[in-house]
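Below is a filled-in request sheet from our internal design queue. Each sheet records the structural input a requester submitted and the sequence that came back. We keep these sheets so that new team members can see what a complete request looks like end to end.

REQUESTER: design group, bay 2
PRIORITY: normal
MODE: inverse folding
CHAIN LENGTH: 489
BACKBONE (tokenized):
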């Protein structure tokens, strides 16, 4: 069969298609969730040429702690696209994730080919190109697709024994997001497996020096300013000079025994935002029972090659892949204990390993009598996954667009240094103003909307004004239900 196909060219075609899907999704999507915070920070960096520390960008986050490489690159894109105007600058912010998400597909192909063959590499590329979680997070301004690129690159260069490049890539991964550290033990094992004696000592020194010189400075910065290199995470264990405002303070081993986390992780794997069952089952759809049943069956079928691959591979590169998964699974358990939530995106850097297992299982299906029907079924499932991502993006974007008039009024009629009282992450990005919900701050305006479907947790009614002394209504939109009050000090 291999003589009939040029798998490298086929993989190239998959990468091109996967890239087109990611850029197209990014183009039609409206930034939402954590991506709002990252985009707002990136814009601030671009406009002010400084790294924020105690500026409020929404979501109760009035401290900037996140490793900043993604924000540096996004700020550069904002500046570059900004040559063509403000709207182009905002568009540029959305292009970082699809670019690095697409480039990750190249490393997935290279890793799988290095471990097995171009045929397996082709199948692995298919998995990574179309698995909904990677499609979703590489089309929005989330950091996960970005850090996955550098982790995959580091693993590939270590396989090639190009230790310096592997160390640089891993340092950049550290500078992208803390969860990159879950793969560090794997890279140390790869050093141990690949080198012996003095060569091992030399290679280890080069790798660690490259990692530290590239990525450690941010963790030192957080230790100096916040008293915890990983702040706000592990605050209950390490502590810090500032108490986090979110769930990071509720560390408990018991969180991992919550059965709801299994469903959350599974739903997130197949593109449900945050793995939220309420979003999946609460949304109004025609023929909802039929569609949800079909979707669930499709996810099970798509998972089958992964299960087959993991059950059958016992030798050769198996230990590399299993250790890769095990270290990241341990990291996810740590996050669950810290956050009491199973965000599968936090282990997106392990998906190249899952892609290889899936490819091995799919290759076994291709050697059965059901090969042709399997190609048709999986092609149909992939098409449906991609269509669902576009439908989801279009619906979300349309919902956000309904409030464009409200956002525009704020940008045009309030001082740039204004601070808005608001529960949620996305107002700051949309109005280009700082926002927060922590008490005791000198707020200038209050954004009120009793029904705010884009961020249900941000819905506020007029009773919130009782918390403030003097106020006056300065804007009201009957169509959207938005009211804005100015606070007089």
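RETURNED SEQUENCE:
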């Amino acid at each position: 069969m291999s003589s009939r196909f040029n798998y490298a060219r086929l993989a190239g075609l998959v990468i091109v298609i996967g890239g087109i899907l990611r850029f197209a999704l990014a183009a039609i999507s409206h930034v939402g969730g954590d991506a709002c915070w990252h985009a707002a920070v990136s814009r601030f960096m671009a406009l002010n040429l400084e790294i924020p520390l105690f500026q409020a960008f929404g979501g109760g986050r009035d401290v900037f702690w996140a490793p900043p490489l993604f924000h540096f690159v996004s700020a550069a894109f904002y500046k570059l696209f900004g040559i063509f105007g403000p709207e182009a600058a905002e568009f540029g912010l959305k292009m970082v994730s699809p670019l690095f998400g697409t480039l990750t597909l190249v490393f997935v192909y290279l890793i799988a080919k290095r471990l097995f063959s171009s045929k397996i590499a082709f199948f692995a590329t298919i998995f990574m190109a179309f698995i909904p979680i990677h499609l979703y997070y590489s089309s929005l301004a989330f950091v996960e697709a970005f850090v996955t690129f550098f982790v995959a690159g580091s693993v590939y260069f270590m396989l090639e024994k190009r230790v310096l490049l592997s160390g640089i890539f891993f340092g950049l991964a550290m500078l992208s997001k803390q969860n990159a550290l879950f793969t560090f033990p794997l890279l140390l094992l790869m050093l141990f497996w690949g080198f012996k004696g003095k060569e091992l000592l030399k290679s280890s020194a080069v790798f660690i020096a490259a990692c530290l010189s590239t990525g450690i400075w941010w963790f030192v910065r957080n230790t100096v300013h916040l008293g915890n290199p990983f702040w706000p995470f592990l605050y209950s264990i390490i502590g810090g000079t500032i108490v986090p405002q979110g769930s990071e303070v509720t560390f408990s081993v018991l969180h991992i025994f919550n059965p709801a986390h299994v469903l959350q992780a599974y739903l997130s794997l197949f593109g449900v935002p945050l793995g939220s069952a309420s979003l999946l089952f609460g949304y109004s759809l025609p023929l909802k029972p039929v569609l949800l049943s079909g979707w669930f069956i499709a996810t099970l079928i798509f998972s089958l090659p992964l299960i087959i691959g993991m059950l059958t591979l016992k030798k050769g590169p198996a230990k590399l892949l299993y250790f890769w998964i095990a270290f990241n699974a341990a990291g996810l358990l740590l996050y669950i204990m810290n956050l009491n939530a199973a965000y599968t995106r936090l282990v997106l850097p392990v998906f190249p390993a899952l892609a290889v297992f899936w490819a091995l299982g799919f290759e076994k299906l291709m050697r059965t009598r059901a090969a042709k029907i399997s190609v048709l079924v999986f092609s149909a499932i992939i098409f449906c996954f991609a269509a669902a991502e576009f439908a989801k993006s279009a619906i979300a974007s349309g919902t956000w667009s309904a409030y464009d008039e409200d956002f525009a009024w704020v940008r045009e009629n309030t001082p740039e240094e204004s601070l808005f009282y608001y529960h949620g992450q996305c107002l700051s990005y949309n109005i280009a103003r700082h926002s927060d919900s922590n008490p005791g701050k000198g707020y200038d305006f209050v954004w009120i909307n009793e029904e705010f479907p884009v961020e249900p947790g941000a819905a506020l009614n007029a009773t919130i004004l009782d918390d403030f002394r003097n106020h006056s209504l300065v804007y009201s939109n009957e169509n959207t239900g938005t009211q804005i009050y100015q606070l007089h000090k």
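SHEET NOTES:
- Residues 404-488 form one domain.
- Residues 325 and 350 are 6 Å apart (CA to CA).
FILED BY: M.R.
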